[in-house]
Amino acid sequence: MTRQHLAGAIARAQTVLSRRPELGLHDDPAATARWQSGTRVVASHENGIQVVSDMPREIGGSGDQVTPGWLFRAGLASCAATAIAMSAATAGIELTQLEIVASSRSDARGVLGMSDAEGKPVFAGPTEVQLLVRISANGVTPDRLRSLVREACRCSPVPAALENAIPLVLRIEPGSA
């Protein structure tokens, strides 16, 4: 898809949503995860795509699949890259490079339900998350690229959800054995 094609599609969507803002609110496609055995899980999209995850051998998994934490980082990086590409197209910027590395730091004790030396539960999520954005465009200043990236990440659903710590609604439907 060319930059012009992408910019045109975005402009059309913005025109429609300016006239009918209620069309912007929608339910996102659900991800359904089904446990297979051990720590292996298959996540499915409604279009049929499936992704298998498992934990490392050190904590009981097979180690032959990506982990759920990696899928989180992949979603974060992909979402940010998409938003940056869309913002660049809208601004008339022809990118020559866009690569995002999403990394995090975690304490494995949290996922194992362990406590720290003071007896407090160790946080199971990452304690730090970083995005490294490598971006280039001919004739565009580094300051303009930085501004583009910051604004795009503000409009990118996964980075925005992480930065704004949206609440998780947990509903539980126990079945019969």
Kindly summarize this structure in a few lines.
With 177 residues, the chain is α+β, with helices and mostly antiparallel strands.
Q: Would you write up a description of this structure?
A:
With 177 residues, the protein is of the alpha+beta class. The protein has two domains: 31-66, no CATH class; 67-163, GMP Synthetase, Chain A, domain 3 (2-Layer Sandwich), CATH 3.30.300. It is 36% helix and 20% strand. Strands 1-2-3 form a three-stranded antiparallel β-sheet, with no helix packed on it. Helix 1 (3-19) packs across helix 2 and helix 2 (68-90) crosses helix 4 (142-154). The mean pLDDT is 94.
Name the features.
single chain, 177 residues, alpha+beta, three-stranded antiparallel β-sheet
Strands, helices and their partners?
Blueprint: H1 3-19, E1 32-37, E2 40-44, E3 50-53, H2 68-90, E4 95-105, H3 108-111, E5 128-137, H4 142-154, H5 157-163
Antiparallel strand pairs: 1-2, 2-3, 4-5
Helix pairs in contact: 1-2, 2-4
Number of domains as seen in the coordinates: 2
Number of helices: 5
CATH fold field value of the largest domain: GMP Synthetase, Chain A, domain 3
User: What's the architecture of the largest domain in CATH terms?
Assistant: 2-Layer Sandwich
Secondary-structure content class = alpha+beta
CATH superfamily of the largest domain: K homology (KH) domain
List how many beta strands DSSP finds: 5
Q: Which CATH class of the largest domain is shown?
A: Alpha Beta
Shape: globular
- Mean of residue pLDDT values: 94
Proportion in helices: 25-40%
Q: N-to-C SSE series? A: HEEEHEHEHH
As a percent range, the share of strand residues is 15-25%
Give the low-pLDDT segments: none
User: What's the arrangement of strands in the largest beta sheet?
Assistant: 1-2-3
Rg, Cα atoms, Å? 20 Å
The biggest beta sheet reads: 3 strands, antiparallel
Distance between the termini: 50 Å
